[in-house]
Write a structure and sequence with these properties.
By secondary structure, this protein is α/β, with parallel strands linked by helices. It has 4 domains: 184 residues, Glycogen Phosphorylase B (Rossmann fold), CATH 3.40.50; 200 residues, Glycogen Phosphorylase B (Rossmann fold, 3-Layer(aba) Sandwich), CATH 3.40.50; 190 residues, Rossmann fold; 76 residues, 2-Layer Sandwich (Alpha-Beta Plaits). It is 39% helix and 20% strand. The chain has a 9-stranded mixed beta sheet, with helices on both faces. β10 and β11 form a beta hairpin. α3 packs across α4, α9 runs parallel beside α10 and α9 crosses α13.
Length: 740
């Protein structure tokens, strides 16, 4: 028996559904606004849960509401929050970025993707609007459940607006492999949007693994592939697979109740049911059916391909071209093989009511479900559930997500026309014992994992106590660095505040722990390793804080450099800015209110606003300081709750790192020396940029901003563990030459 349709999720609290569309479409008529309820399985599955728990559905109603129009509550047992979109926004956010960029790319058709910055910008703006609506309606909700590719950026905005919310995301289409996903110019922004969730879920494990590949390789995030966890700053994100099911009980009832349907001819029926889309493989399916008639003429005048194509996106030229191609293929095959009393293909360009479709499913002897790529494909599951009589056979593309669990189907490569033709032949000739065995296995699984079980398991995971990814270990560091370092000299460059020492409310309190001090000493004690500290502090201050005489120290973001193996360096233009920096400090004193203060460091200074308690006041003072710094002709660079004021002399940590490397190892340093740089804020991004492709870089701390670093580390403790591994690692290969 199928599980009960009302599911068994414990009614502990309301949930908020955030989807592109509301559970109904609104149209404007002479009688006012009228609704047509969606018939999809998602709505049918979620409504019972919303009814039991209470909650809210946020989405677009399908048209722009006028100033005085309101969606009145009718009979929904939950709240409805419409998000209004203009016609331009629909064109750019929905038809543009969602369906001309993401849809083809995620289905592994990159040649069909269009990358338009205006579409991307509108997509971000619309996602922000959805997030604002959700955050305003989310009070008391146990979880905010975001759905599908239209809202990939929403979690970031929701996290900002409701930082304590439990956010979960489900992608209803495939997630592409790394080599395809990285074609997207905004791939890192999309990944960060998803990682602001507590749970990110896909139909099948393969898509989850693709996602883990991308976050590791594009964001440098640490992943646990065995437990499907991602470290995102100081948070751990759970990644899971939940194959969606169908409403088994309802479909079985419809299939049993359906009488003879006029769409089913007298011949044996091979059935295709698809939305008209290039991902569905309809053209290749027709070619495979044509090939079947060529290879196996015994089936002529005995079978028919009934292809139902539901109109879709007819305003898009590519879809109109696809319809013309299918029309021509159908005409060609019928022209080749039709007789006076038989046509091999019956093609219906329309949708069928679900009661009628259930009868079509029931009476078809073979279902040909052969998408070129599909997130899941519920047609395959609907066909199986509706086989309530003499069972038919499911021929299924192995490129559909459903193939991962529907093992008893006959799997085919939809691009292989001959293979698909032979699979149809095998299905038509299969004896009843094998047909029943295969169909029984498929049906048992669909009953057990129906759409209500999908909702229940998803919510149970979303609401479960969050798992935490263990701290990085030697095995992590070895996997990242062992091959990279083997046989080479290492230049280890380290920022100080937030990297070696925890950030403190005053720089004087940001001191090294005894363990960190020992780890730095142990690294420097290795014959093949040279350590440099690159800091925004003054040269004198950073040398005093670390207090290890054999290191190289770069202060004031590298404007001053001294230490073992390098000639002392003081930027030649510094002499021109010391007096001007003192004058700037006096001007900044005027805005250093409510605890804000100025740290003078010779040629540079830092405006600290961490002590300012009120966040709005903090933002106001920092902006005032930024204006003052810029007006004085200095560079204003953001740091942790601070602004760095630097002379406009074209020097930063990146150039300082390059100077240290060339000074110590010569102009060909990259041939003999491996470089690791570890830093924690925006000033270190200059070094990450300079070392891109030349070394391994680590960004420490929060994942709130994008980084050019190769990898991320969560905190200073992880930096200490990295240094300990570097100090005790084995390297049996010959070492590269020592510094000059």
């Amino acid at each position: 028996m199928a599980e009960q349709s009302d599911a068994t999720v414990d009614p502990t609290g309301p949930i908020l559904i955030l989807a592109n569309r509301l559970p109904f479409t609104v149209s404007r008529t002479a009688r006012g606004l009228e609704r047509q309820r969606s018939s999809g399985g998602l709505v049918a599955a979620l409504e019972p849960v919303l009814q039991r728990r209470g909650g809210t559905w946020v989405g677009w109603p399908g048209l722009a509401l006028r100033s005085r129009e309101r969606l009145e509550r009718v009979d929904e047992p939950y709240d409805i929050v419409p998000v209004s979109l203009t016609e331009t926004e629909v064109n750019r956010y929905y038809h543009g970025f969602s369906n001309r960029t993401l849809w083809p790319l995620f289905h592994s058709f990159p040649e069909r993707s269009r990358f338009d910055r205006r579409d991307w910008q509108t997509y971000g703006q619309v996602n922000e609007r959805f997030a604002v609506a959700a955050s305003e309606a989310a009070s008391g909700s146990d979880v905010i459940w975001v759905h599908d590719y239209h809202l990939l950026l929403c979690p970031t905005s929701v996290r900002r607006l409701a930082p304590d919310a439990r956010i979960a995301f489900f992608l209803h289409i495939p997630f592409p492999p790394y080599d395809i996903f990285r074609l997207l110019p905004w791939d890192r922004e999309i990944l960060r949007g998803l990682l602001d969730c507590d749970l990110v879920a896909f139909h099948v494990t393969g898509y989850a693994q693709n996602f883990l590949d991308c976050v590791e390789r594009r964001l440098g995030a640490r992943v646990d592939r065995e437990n499907l966890l991602v470290e995102h700053g100081n948070r751990t994100v759970q990644v899971s697979a939940f194959p969606i099911g169908v409403d088994v009980e309802a479909l079985e009832k419809r299939a049993r109740a359906a009488g003879p349907v006029p769409e089913v001819p007298n011949e044996r029926v091979v059935l295709g049911v698809d939305r008209l889309d290039y991902t569905k493989g309809i053209s290749d399916r027709i070619r495979a059916f044509e090939r079947l008639l060529e290879l196996h003429p015994e089936h002529r005048e005995k079978i028919v391909l009934l292809q139902i194509a539901v109109p879709s996106r007819s305003q898009v030229s590519e879809y109109r071209a696809l319809k013309r191609e299918i029309d021509e293929l159908v005409g060609r095959v019928n022209g080749r093989f039709a007789t006076a009393t038989w046509s091999p293909i019956r093609y219906l360009y329309r949708s069928l009511p679900i009661d009628r479709l259930a009868g079509v499913y029931r009476d078809a002897e073979v279902a040909l479900v052969t998408p070129l790529r599909d997130g899941m494909n519920l047609v395959a599951k609907e066909y199986v559930v509706c086989q309530v009589g003499d069972p038919g056979v499911l021929v299924l593309s192995h490129l559909a997500g459903a193939a991962e669990t529907m093992r008893e189907a006959l799997h085919v490569n939809p691009y292989n026309v001959d293979e698909t033709a032979e699979a149809i032949h095998r299905a038509l000739d299969m004896d009843e014992v094998e047909r029943r065995m295969r169909m029984n296995g498929l049906q048992r699984r669909e009953r057990r994992y129906n759409v209500y079980a999908w909702v229940r398991s998803f919510l149970e995971t979303a609401l479960a106590t969050q798992r935490v990814l263990r701290p990085p270990t030697d095995s992590d560091f070895a996997g990242w660095l062992a091959a990279f370092l083997q046989g080479h000299r290492l230049a280890l460059l380290l920022d100080y505040d937030g990297t070696l020492a925890r950030l403190a409310d005053h720089p004087s309190r940001a001191v090294l722990t005894a363990d960190m001090q020992r780890a730095i000493e142990a690294c420097d004690a290795r014959a093949d390793t040279d350590v440099a500290i690159v800091s925004g502090r003054s040269l004198e201050d950073i040398a005093r804080m670390v207090s290890l005489p054999d290191l190289v120290y770069a202060g004031n973001h590298g404007l001053e450099i001294e230490g073992k193996g390098v000639e002392p360096f003081h930027h030649e233009d510094l002499v021109h800015y010391r007096a001007r920096t003192e004058e700037l400090a006096r001007e900044l004193e005027q805005v250093a209110l409510d605890g804000a203060w100025i740290e003078e460091k010779g040629p540079t200074l830092t405006f600290h606003y961490r002590p300012v308690a009120d966040s709005a006041r903090r933002n106001m003072l920092s902006e005032a300081a930024r204006r003052t710094i810029t007006a004085a002709g200095y560079q204003a660079r953001s740091a942790h709750d601070a602004l760095e004021a630097r002379p406009p002399i074209g020097w930063d940590k990146g150039r300082a790192v390059l100077h240290i490397l060339r000074s110590r190892y010569g102009p060909a340093w990259s041939e003999d020396v491996r470089v690791i740089y570890v830093g924690d804020d925006e000033t270190d991004e200059d070094a990450f940029r300079m070392l891109s492709g030349l070394g391994v870089t680590f960004r420490v701390g929060s994942a709130d901003t994008l980084t050019l670093a190769t990898r991320r580390l969560p905190n200073t403790e992880a930096v200490g563990a990295l240094l300990q591994w570097i100090a005790r690692r084995e390297d049996r290969e010959p070492q590269a030459p020592r510094p000059r």
